[in-house]
Amino acid sequence: MPDSLRALWLRGIAFNPAAPAEALIRLLDPVAGKAGPLMCEGRDLPDAVVDAALRHPAGDVRGALARNRFIDPARLAPLAKDPSGLVRARLAGGPDPHCGFRIRYVRPLPDDILVVLLTAQDGGDDGRLTAEEIRSELESSRQMPLSFRRSLADREHSGLRIRAVRNWDSLTPEQREGLLDDPDPAVREAAEKADWMLDPRQVEAQLPDRDARGKLFVFATCALSDTVVDQCLADGIVLPLARNPHIPAHAVARLARHPEAEVRALIAARPDLEPHLIAELKQDPDDGVRMRVRLRPYPRTWNEYGWFNRTADHGPDCTCPIIEPDTDSSPEWFAACAASGEPVLRQVAARSPRLPAELVDKLAQDDDEAVRVDLACHHPLAPPRLLLDVFVTRPVHRPHLLTLPGFPRTGTAHLINHSDPQVRALAAADPTLTDPPLNDPDPSIRRAAAANPSLTPETLETLLPTFHTAEGAAANPSLPTSRIRALLDHCLTATD
After folding, report:
1. 3-class DSSP assignment, residue 396
2. How far is residue 275 from each of residues 213, 244, 248, 271, 359, measured CA to CA in Å?
3. Which long-range contacts (CB under 8 A, 24 or more apart) does 141-145 make?
4. pLDDT digits (tens, 9 = 90+) for 160-210
5. Which of 451, 319, 425 is nearest to 374 (CA)?
């Protein structure tokens, strides 16, 4: 048996949705090669397989499971205390960013897992990573929901309250006051150090000690003195200032007259813009600036300003990370955006996963393509017909769309002669297709056709020995369980 066929059969079985748990568990054996880790990371798994992977002695198996984005993340809780720091780091880092496409939406981890990772005192028995390095992975993974971040200031563990001060400017005044008066001296000290962010004099005093990246953070988020603002303007550091909610009114006025339209556009959408500046910017020569002024009073809060800026000027091929709406943005605001005559505001609404079903139905038929695409990519109730339409017309979104539970796997047979091979491959796997294209010149389409569950076991037997159809045939849910077991015996016993 050629090694290439053996690997294809094992990988096919690993992703066969009808393969029994006991067969999948056999793939965790090292003799199965990469099939086991690929399976642990790349598909939903029966509970028995998850349990076996959690207990598996090989760190690469547990580490692959830690990056699984298909199973309930609560099932991964034991990995937060895994003996291997590398496994913990993979859980903290989330789904593999090198999986071949940009993962736009990352499902949050449960609070109990987050607490374990953030309060760990060591980085695992293997000594490869420190606890702080693992926490750093978690911070950048987008797996911590806003609700959890905001709860840190009120957590029992003092280490979590210390971490709360890292988002000092987003805390409520009551939370800041509570941390400054915390019974734990370490928390009080951290809060006192963080309180500088809202004191222009302290900000100015600390600037010389910060590197270039740290200074940009300060210019965009902290309360700034007139001296710092004037220096930024003199040095041409204007984009961070334009986004900073704490800059004084005279700086807003200067930026509203800046020669760069990008700067004026950021100012035009600010919720604190004074009436005389609104009147000026209504006459701006740039269409984008005038559009933002025209949309007032949107946004009305700084959180809504952030949502608006993340949406404006983003066309139908935008693949930015999908983030959860802040609870400060009311459902009524998103509903008002959905009813607006301005496409950019309807885009804002389409990006809210909390938009009610009746508004989803309305936006799914919107005249503006960018609105429809945003709805397809962001809302769990987006109709399957819309998901399919975006898949066909906007290739950049295909990897993301294929991860969505509502994406249609049937009703695609009419696309079997499409000019795009990726679209034909989708249609080739449609179980309602009467004659899957097993002889298509494109190998990816032959592989998809071989996995079509409409094929008979007899047909699958003819496909298993052929290189371009072997994996698809082994992954076919119509392959009898007895044949799956026989294939595993054939592949593994020679090495067992």
Report:
1. helix
2. 34, 19, 15, 11, 33
3. 141/92, 141/93, 141/94, 141/106, 142/94, 142/106, 142/321, 142/323, 143/92, 143/94, 143/106, 143/107, 143/108, 143/109, 143/114, 144/108, 144/109, 144/114, 145/108, 145/324
4. 999 999 888 888 899 999 999 999 999 999 999 888 888 999 999 989 999
5. 319
Angstrom CA distances, 326 to 104, 133, 153, 360, 491, stand at: 17, 28, 17, 19, 51
pLDDT in tens, 345-400: 999 999 999 999 999 999 999 999 999 999 999 999 999 999 999 999 999 999 99
- For residue 485, what are its two tokens? 């077991």
Please state, in angstroms and rounded to a whole number, the distance separating the CA atoms of residues 415 and 102. Answer: 26
How far is Cα 37 from Cα 67, in angstroms, rounded to an integer? 10
CB 204 within 8 A of CB 228: yes
Model confidence at 124, pLDDT cuts 50, 70, 90, reads very high
